[in-house]
Amino acid sequence: MGAQVGRVHDALRECGGENLHTSVLTSLDFNEVQEFVLRVVDAPIDDSRGACLTGYNVGDELKVVQFSTVNELNPLGWRHQEKTRPQWPHTYRFQVPKRSWQAMVVPDNSAGSQQVCLLQMAASPDERTRENAQFDVEDSKVAAVYAQRFNLHQQNTVAGMGMADPKDSAAVAATSTMDDETALIENGTFPTIKVAAPVACEVIASGYPSMVPVGAICTLAPYAEKRVQEYVFDGQSDEFSELPQAYFHYAAFTSGGKEYVCDIQGVEDDDGSFLIVDPCILKADLPGVRDLIGAVANVQSEPSKNGPTVERFDTLHPKCTQACRVFDPQRRSAMRNGKVGMCGMGACGLRFAK
Ligand SMILES: [Zn+2]
User: Based on C-alpha coordinates, what's the Rg of the chain?
Assistant: First the structure.
């Protein structure tokens, strides 16, 4: 490995690690001698009740033995299209384009089995930082917590326990054991929402340094699907599906309108469960200075326009599902009475940042 890494460093100096040629990346396959190796640097998501986990831990070294572009994964990039970006906050998560590939990954010690993952990396070399990757991982972590609570709420509803108040399900989550809940959520008796939980990785050796330079930080998520469907994205290109829509409303409702899980995308399985990948968290609070892009970002002058507003909620969630009516019956009556938004009656617990 030492000599190989040495060659990698030499090649990296020559090319500067600048241009990313997806056409070349597509050509890599199992039989290529050259490959690249990752080391996991951040893996904070460990609760399988709302997430699908890679099983990788900080310090694990992983070999990428296959690497390919998949056109049907393109919706992952829609968030960063020129026409879309202006309506989102001026932060890394909403503004910095990423590249996405399907990657076959095996532990470098040959002790584990191979796994197909979604590998994502900022398109710009300057943005492939550990800090940015942590923003990616953190959003999935927040989305997974909402998914865990939503799944439990759904489970209790299906079980006829009458838990119409999300606070009740939160209390149950705090007192029951994880094993019990995992067994119930895993038994497949009701559909769930789960987030493909990413880990952040550093490239520690690369046979293709111009495309995947040593030192770059990427994310790996356990997403083996060859397609991505948008469920809650812009209200226009979305496929309206009950469970993701109810999950979106549930997260907004239980956060008191302070957080929206946006860009809900992924796949539905044969049982009606959804695996979502690379969701984004839209927060009422102004983004931290660390997360802002550039020193003159104009988001501070118009925080509410790009944040979790009632208007955005109505665009992303044009109608409620049966599941919504269990935890937020007021929205339906508020809309029937001609009031705007889900908090039109002022009784549903939602408070929006102005
Ligand atoms: Zn709803």
Answer: 21
